[in-house]
Design goal:
binds zinc ion, two-stranded antiparallel sheet, Rossmann fold, about 300 residues, about 45% helix, alpha/beta, about 15% strand, four-stranded parallel β-sheet
Length: about 300
């Protein structure tokens, strides 16, 4: 039974419901607001039944271009801890904190991650926020979340630490498995096209080259020249592994694949989980799904 189902079965529930955004908060639970769905899952893992989590950017939604609604503001002011990714992923979060006068605590989950940078449109360095695509970084994420929850609720500290360290073992097993899957394919074949540059950390960890028409945010549109160059590269290097993303518009990639004469594979789950009953309802499922799809795709290169 998942945490949510367990929470629903609590006898207290009917009497002690406080509605904050989408999360039903029992009286003994700490309301935590995560900026996006992947962080929401990590907070649920670490906090267990002790927390009620609301994710502002939900499943299959794009955090890069998110615009908070009044309901998001209400969720935030009811929260006692705000968990963000940082690294420039949620430019809207600070504005939301200011405009709502949020007085709770805050933690940046990526604290301590060695950030990647990429050349931006005008040659300037841009920080790549997608650090969760390397499970090694997520070890830091969950430890940061555990420490933040312990500051808020010292009595629960041992539980949060125990939950996070048990999850670290799962992350390590995931990493070993992913390494095995991808290293079984010759390095020259490990080339993939996605919509935007979200796989830099993944690519570095597992020695896969990712190319994308859009940069590290889904906000910027590529020029016709950039798209034409990418199409030539796909054809020259005979790249068949072309993937949609679950949370961004498929239009650009669909046109690019058509022009390059390749058939895109199924969606990768990139900056958001799927709905709970989908193929990527948790971070671990998301990573396993992506690795399996990527392996199937690059085999055809
Ligand atoms: Zn992204």
């Amino acid at each position: 039974m998942n945490h949510f189902a367990r929470a629903l079965l609590r006898p207290l529930i009917g009497a002690a419901l406080l509605v904050a955004g989408t999360a039903a908060v029992a009286a003994d639970q700490i309301p935590v607001v995560a900026s996006f769905s992947i962080l929401g899952d990590l907070v649920r893992v670490v906090g267990g039944d002790g927390v009620a989590v609301t994710s502002l950017v939900g499943p299959d939604e794009d955090a890069h271009v998110f615009e908070p609604k009044p309901a998001d503001a209400r969720s935030l002011v009811h929260g006692r801890l705000l968990v963000t990714n940082g690294l420039g992923f949620e430019p809207w979060a600070q504005k939301l904190v200011k405009s709502t006068g949020y007085k709770g605590q805050a933690v940046v989950a990526s604290q301590g991650v060695k950030a990647r940078t990429m050349p931006g449109e005008k040659g300037q360095k841009e920080t790549d926020p997608h650090a969760w695509q390397d499970p090694g970084n997520v070890v830091l994420y969950v430890r940061n979340i555990a420490a933040a929850l312990a500051r808020l609720d010292p009595a629960g500290a041992a539980t949060y630490q125990g939950n996070s360290e048990a999850y670290v073992k799962e992350l390590q097993a995931l990493d070993t498995w992913a390494q095995e899957q991808l290293s079984a394919i010759p390095a020259a074949k490990r080339k993939v096209i996605t919509s935007h540059d979200a796989f830099g950390y993944f690519g570095k960890r597992y020695q896969v080259s990712f190319l994308a028409p859009q940069g590290i945010s889904t906000e910027a549109e590529p020029s016709a020249k950039e798209v034409a160059q990418l199409i030539r590269q796909i054809q020259r290097e005979k790249i068949k592994a072309v993937f949609f993303e679950n949370m961004s518009s498929p239009k650009l990639l669909a046109q690019l694949a058509k022009d390059a004469g390749v058939t895109p594979g199924p969606a990768l789950y990139v900056d958001a989980l799927s709905k709970a009953d989908g193929p990527a309802g948790s971070y671990l499922q998301l990573m396993r799904h992506n690795v399996m799809q990527l392996v199937a795709g690059i085999r055809q290169n």
